[in-house]
Design goal:
Blueprint lengths: L1 E3 L5 E3 L11 H12 L5 E2 H9 L7 H16 L4 E4 L2 E4 L7 H17 L3 H13 L16 H24 L3 H14 L4 H13 L3 H19 L5 H11 L13
Antiparallel strand pairs: 1-2, 3-5, 4-5
Helix pairs in contact: 1-3, 2-3, 4-5, 4-6, 5-6, 6-7, 6-8, 7-8, 8-9, 8-10, 9-10
């Protein structure tokens, strides 16, 4: 059995079609079990995930009914009872998020080691695993917040690492427009502005590079109350005075 959580939650057995869980609360139960696959999740925690501090009187029985229905979809051997809780039993690669994390770690190692092409070869498929926000169709619950935040932050890092590897190979023109979009989507991440400005400058778009620097400086000051980093300042000086300024030592990772 395989599962997707990088987007709407889906399950798949063998070569069959990917299926979802139609009931919202039942989907929350599956999502929490997926977020903590391989560990026991107590019934009390599942009750809290579904209803928060206002559970119905028969909440435990209801969760047990949800688990029974889930087992009909994914199998008794996948969803095991463990004392007063349940464990989703999965193997390597059964959950798309696990594959994503493995690929990102491998890509980062290659990028840090100065191997941009192998980094691209793992980071591109890692980013492609996303089909929307993590747990996209699951009703909001605090139980998923830590896992969701971790995955979303790792997604941002993977996008930046992929772009950095592309720039290291001189493929600036291929990623410059995507970098502009990424910078506007997450304007508080300075590294995105650095990558964008570097790509624009290399592509000969000096005016746009300087405009991107001004935009980055404004956002960082207005939103975070900080000045651009020394690296970003050095990049600006290189653009303004290309023959006199010392080129910044750009850290791709």
């Amino acid at each position: 059995m395989r599962f997707r959580i990088l987007g709407p939650v889906r399950a798949r057995c063998g070569d069959a079609e990917w299926i979802g869980v139609p009931a919202d609360q039942q989907r929350v139960v599956l999502a929490v079990l997926l977020a903590e696959a391989g560990a026991t999740v107590s019934t009390d925690r599942l009750v809290d995930a579904v209803w928060g501090d206002r559970p119905p009187r028969r909440a435990v029985n209801t969760v047990q009914a949800y688990v029974m229905r889930l087992r009909r979809r994914i199998g008794d051997d996948i969803l095991a009872t463990r004392g007063h809780g349940y464990e989703l039993v999965t193997g390597p690669g059964d959950i798309d998020a696990d594959t994503f994390e493995w690929l990102v770690a491998a890509g980062r190692r290659d990028l840090h080691a100065g191997r941009p092409q192998p980094a691209i070869d793992t980071l591109a498929p890692a980013v492609a695993l996303w089909r929307g926000p993590a747990f996209a169709d699951v009703p909001p619950t605090m139980a998923l917040t830590p896992r969701t935040r971790h995955l979303e932050q790792l997604r941002l890092t993977a996008e930046e690492d992929h772009a950095a590897a592309m720039l290291d190979l001189g493929r600036d023109a291929q990623v410059v427009d995507d970098l502009g979009r990424l910078a506007e989507l997450s304007p508080l991440r300075e590294r995105r502005w650095i990558l964008l400005i570097r790509a624009l400058h290399t592509c000969g778009r000096r005016g746009e590079a300087l405009a991107a620097y001004q935009r980055a400086r404004t956002v960082l000051r207005d939103e975070l109350g900080i000045d651009p980093s020394a690296e970003l300042h050095a990049l600006q000086r290189t653009i303004l005075h290309p023959y006199t300024a010392e080129a910044p030592a750009f850290a791709g990772a």
